[in-house]
Write a structure and sequence with these properties.
about 1100 residues, 8-stranded parallel β-sheet, TIM Barrel, oxidoreductase, oxidoreductase activity, acting on the CH-CH group of donors, NAD or NADP as acceptor, NADH:flavin oxidoreductase/NADH oxidase N-terminal domain-containing protein, 32 helices, disordered C terminus
Length: about 1100
């Protein structure tokens, strides 16, 4: 059942005449004796913490039974309300509860005979009661400063002493209001003094306070009348326990006694009547009505009926749904569950309480079993219902995406598919997004590229966004925006001046207006005429109606950060002398008129507003912000909006000179009664804290949502955030609109790149890849890692028969990955040819024992010690060379027609397929056969497995990963080679010609037998030896000589002999114009 349909969690109003207390739910914390205030009875900071932990916005706490006088004390450590020090102590408690939006009453208590002489002021006087009647068979003993003792027989109060008791109650009630309590509850239950007079088993008096039910009820009614003479009836409640037998206090005719008393309460119109069901320590008395005490009391009492004792979630829901009680007070569950209200809402399990720490613990600090019970989870991630009258929006968590100006909609302000993708990425089930500030009219526009809600095309564009968000289960509001003076004529229709409350320009700001022609300085606006202002209000109303038509769940009016509504509100800008200027009432008029106009078309659950008290954004300041915003927020209370959104003055919205010491949010919390949202500068810890202590109901995050599309998940798991790039906040200077908009990776995407390669402990392999490859690499690695892992796991159980299919799958995945890298790398080289350079200058690196001298001669087309320089006129047909390149040399292979490049690439893929198959097969063999220690260590060192923390059991998975990594390296070399052949734009200086063995292989000529037009031969020369050396290091692996290469070398050897014998020398001119290139 949805929480909004459960009456237990719905709002209610207590009884009373003048100012009834309004509650947001019906779960009450019952008064619980905890005995943590020592001899003085003064509440401490520990007591403050205890009550604050259990406070909820709009929830009612009833503070523990509190002594009305020194002689009223029944237990050592119980608090009092009869000294100035006690009043001051309670003030700290009530202030803290009210800061969290809670309400708190206090239970006024006189224990009567349930005491001990050691707890009396003189330490020896007897406790008092209606009569000198003791009792037996009790389950507890009084707590004194010297430990537990047996109860004693009390003395009977004299008739002339009883008015003094009444006066004590009256004085304590006055002290309670002075201490900040919202009201008092008279404790007339559970066997204490008022019930000792009421029940005939204890009251044996023969004066006006004994005998008949009217006499026995006299003290209770006299006390109520005395308290009501000082307090309003909305501030007074009473607790009764009909049919109970606590502390041996019973009545022979409870139905008659309590029927009389309850009927007497009806004319008093109290805040509530609190009934205790006789369960738990309050055993059932001899006479128990059918249906229970609550069912007995309901027909008798006309006001708010509260019931308590022994209720769980199901019975609490039942008793409120059937109308037997208006609200339910929970006792012990609140002791061990400081977040009991939340646990009841989400139907979560309860912590188990420890009876030994109910009162003062025998060992350990006073906080033991008091403030150390854990909460279920961070309140930031708990459910929340926004405000409103008809259908409040229900959220599954309290992390809200703040409105973020992104400027991706161009001149027309129409959201595109890219905008829909952006918001869909950030939507979560039951999460709230607030769409970016959206213009309400053409003249409202302050920035080029901002969206609007004033044309049919814009409404249709937003429909794509709202449908995408709703498809993911999310909720979305839109922020309605008029920038006022924060604009420029280039952004206005017809180039007119922007408008504001007054003709006051912006001074000393750090930004400029974004126009279609670039950045432009702000200018002095013109002041709106009085007759123009209703048109602005109508624009807000029309835009709100368009927003609902576009599918938004609600609208947020932008009354913050220095824009039009705030320009009217703040006297630093508003210099008007008409009805929209001067007093705070006048300056707030436009804002309130806009809100009321929107509310005339939308339900209050669909309307919210954003304010930035104490901010100074765009030079918009106020001389008395506390008065100004105090007035506005008090006006908002009556509107019952979905929420009030507050901007803390941090970051760009920096602190003004008049910010309250404890911050903007606590200031607003003390004033606003509805759902309060705060934003600006929060991280996980501060977001959790501010919702935990009740200062805010939800937190809006801005920039973190820009760079973290899965921000809610990251907050829940306390995962690191991506860094945002401020240069792409708005329209990026270079690159597509998606740059810095929809291309930030999620946590799952990053994890998929390293999970299979590093066992969560190694480095993130993606960071090893150059930045220009990271985006295409993401999907490549994701597909490769996931697919290969599945294949490898299957192979473990399927046996050798699956090896072939696994290798084929691996080859296909590798090819997909390398295809992607190949084209991206080629693009990188084409835009920046200087990325790849090689210059092997040191001649000694190429010398050996058989070094020979080569006669060097100058030629226009030959540079000493290097390959011939190729001019455009010397290139083969179809070849190209950049005009600015004066020295371009091509290595290793002949220049070919660009149309033949696919031949080279196809050859590379064939090589890759064979190499990948071989490497994977070898790895599989190694993984499933016994290796010697030396071989295994050699393999680990070669593959650098140890730093990546890859276990031996994952050798096969690692083999696939390494095959892809080796393929990546080969792809880089191959791409470089193909690029040089196709474009001839990169200068690569290779001194291979100076190698003596090269001369011998070529027979002393400038042509190579390997450059016979054989593409395979050229690739073989580039990669053959490297491949041979690398793969030969694998354990138990030795590659045989390449037969084709061996045959060619044997042929070359024969040519060398004939060349030496004929002593022929190469002809330089022939070499320069040869279609073959020297190797």
């Amino acid at each position: 059942m949805a929480s909004k349909l459960i009456k237990l969690f719905s709002p209610m109003t207590l009884g009373g005449k003048k100012n009834p207390v309004h509650l947001q739910h019906r779960v009450i914390m019952a008064p619980l004796t905890r005995l943590r205030t020592g001899e003085s009875g003064v509440p401490t900071d520990l007591v403050v913490e205890y009550y604050v932990q259990r406070t909820t916005p709009g929830g009612l706490l009833i503070a523990e039974a509190t002594n009305i006088s020194p002689t009223a004390r029944g237990y050592f450590g119980s608090p009092g309300l009869y000294t100035v020090e006690q009043v001051e102590g309670w003030k700290k408690v009530t202030s803290a509860v009210h800061e969290k939006g809670g309400k708190i009453f206090v239970q006024l208590w006189h224990s009567g005979r349930v005491g001990h002489p050691l707890n009396q002021p003189d330490g020896k006087s007897l406790p008092v009661s209606s009569s000198a009647v003791g009792w037996e068979d009790v389950t507890s003993r009084p707590v004194t400063a010297e430990g537990r003792h047996s109860y004693v027989t009390p003395r009977a109060l004299e008739t002339d002493e009883i008015p003094g008791i009444v006066e004590d109650y009256k004085r304590a009630a006055e002290y309670a209001i002075e201490a900040g309590f919202d009201g008092v509850e008279l404790h007339g239950a559970n066997g204490y003094l008022l019930e000792q007079f009421l029940c005939d088993s204890v009251n044996c008096r023969t004066d006006v306070y004994g005998g008949s039910v009217e006499n026995r009820a006299r003290l209770t009614l006299d006390t109520l009348d005395a308290v009501l003479s000082k307090l309003d009836s909305s501030q007074v409640g009473i607790r009764l326990s009909p049919f109970g037998s606590t502390f041996g206090c019973t009545d022979s005719t409870p139905e008659e006694t309590y029927s009389y008393l309850i009927k007497k309460l009806n004319p008093l119109d109290l805040a509530y009547l609190h009934i205790v069901e006789p369960r738990g320590l309050h055993p059932t008395g001899p006479i128990q009505p059918e249906g229970g005490t609550t069912a007995f009391s309901r027909p008798l009492y006309d006001g708010v009926l509260m019931t308590s004792s022994g209720f769980d979630r199901a019975s609490g829901i039942e008793v409120t749904e059937n109308g037997a009680a208006n609200c339910v007070a929970y006792g012990r569950p609140f002791i061990s569950n400081p977040d009991l209200v939340h646990r009841l809402e989400v139907d979560a399990p309860w912590n188990t309480w420890d009876f030994k720490t109910f009162y003062m613990p025998e060992e350990g600090p006073l906080s033991l079993g008091y403030t150390d019970y854990p909460a279920l989870e961070a309140k930031l991630f708990s459910a929340l219902n926004l405000g409103g009258k008809k259908a409040p929006v229900q959220l599954q968590h309290r992390v809200v995406m703040a409105p973020l100006t992104r400027l991706r909609t161009g001149e027309q302000g129409v959201p595109t598919d890219l905008v829909a993708e952006y918001y869909a990425q950030r939507a979560t089930p039951g999460g709230l997004l607030i769409a970016e500030a959206t213009n309400i009219s053409p003249s409202a526009r302050g920035y080029f590229g901002a969206p609007g809600l004033f044309t049919t095309e814009q409404v249709e564009g937003w429909k794509k966004v709202t449908r995408a968000v709703h498809a993911k289960g999310g909720k979305i509001f839109v922020q309605l925006w008029h920038t006022g003076r924060v604009s420029h004529p280039l952004n206005q229709p017809g180039g007119i001046l922007p408008v504001s409350s007054s003709a006051v320009g912006l001074d000393d700001v750090r930004t400029s207006s974004v126009t279609r022609e670039g950045r432009a300085k702000y200018i002095t606006p013109r002041a709106l005429e009085t007759h123009e202002i209703p048109g602005i209000v109508a624009d807000y109303k029309r835009a709100a109606e368009n927003a609902i038509a576009a599918g938004f769940d609600g609208v947020e009016l932008h009354g913050a950060n220095g824009y039009l509504l705030e320009q009217f509100l703040c006297d630093g800008v508003n210099r008007r002398t008409d009805s929209y200027g001067g007093s705070v009432e006048n300056r707030a008029r436009l804002m309130l008129e806009a809100l009321n106009a929107v509310l005339s078309s939308l339900d209050s659950s669909q309307v919210a507003i954003r304010l930035s008290p104490f901010g100074v954004t765009f030079g918009c300041t106020d001389s008395t912000p506390k008065n100004t915003y105090g007035y506005v927020i008090n006006q908002l209370n009556a509107l019952n909006l979905a929420y009030l959104h507050i901007v803390e003055p941090r970051g760009y919205h920096f602190r003004g000179p008049l910010v309250p010491e404890n911050g903007t949010t606590p200031f607003c919390r003390s004033l606003y009664k509805g759902v309060l949202m705060t934003s600006s500068g929060f991280d996980r810890a501060t977001g959790v804290e501010i919702t935990k202590n009740g200062l805010a109901d939800c937190v809006a995050y801005g920039r973190p949502f820009i760079s973290n599309p899965d921000f809610v998940h990251r907050l829940k798991t306390d995962a690191p955030w991506n860094d945002w790039d401020r240069k792409t906040y708005y329209v990026p200077a270079n690159g597509p609109l998606s740059l810095g908009y929809t291309d930030y990776p999620t946590l799952d995407m990053k994890a998929s790149l390293c999970t299979h390669f590093s066992d969560h402990n190694g480095i993130l392999m993606l960071n090893l890849v150059p930045p220009q490859w990271r985006d295409p690499m993401q999907w490549g690695f994701f597909c490769a890692a996931s697919f290969v892992r599945g294949i490898s796991c299957f192979m473990r159980y399927a046996g050798v028969f699956c090896v072939f299919f696994g290798m084929v799958a691996h080859t296909i995945v590798s090819m997909v990955l390398l295809f992607n890298i190949f084209f991206n790398y080629a693009l990188c080289c084409a835009t920046d040819p200087g990325i790849i350079t090689a210059s092997w200058k040191k001649e000694e690196n190429f010398n050996d024992d058989e070094e020979e001298d080569l006669e060097e001669e100058d030629d226009d087309d030959v540079e000493t010690g290097f390959l011939p320089r190729i001019r455009p006129s010397a290139m083969a047909p179809g070849g190209t060379c950049t005009s600015g390149s004066s020295r371009v040399q091509l290595p290793l292979v002949q220049l070919v027609d660009p149309q033949s490049v696919h031949v080279y690439f196809f050859t590379f893929l064939v090589w890759l397929a064979v190499g990948s198959y071989y490497a994977a097969f070898t790895s599989y063999k190694s993984a499933y056969t016994e290796l010697t220690r030396e071989q295994y260590v050699k393999m680990l060192v070669l593959a650098e497995v140890a730093p990546l923390n890859i276990p031996a059991a994952a050798t096969l998975q690692f083999a696939f990963a390494m095959a892809a990594a080796v393929g990546l390296a080969v792809s880089i070399l191959a791409t470089w080679h193909v690029y040089l052949i196709a474009t001839a734009q990169t200068s690569v200086e290779l001194q291979i010609n100076r190698h003596p063995r090269n001369r011998r292989l070529h027979g002393g000529r400038v042509t190579s037998p390997y450059s016979t037009g054989s593409v395979h031969g050229n690739w073989e020369l580039v990669f053959g030896r490297c491949n041979y050396k690398i793969l030969s290091l694998m354990p138990s692996t030795r590659l045989p000589p390449n037969p084709r290469t061996l045959k060619k070398r044997q042929s070359v050897t024969r040519n060398i002999s004939s060349a030496r014998s004929s002593e022929e020398k190469p002809h330089l001119d022939e070499a320069a114009h040869s279609p073959d290139i020297i190797v």
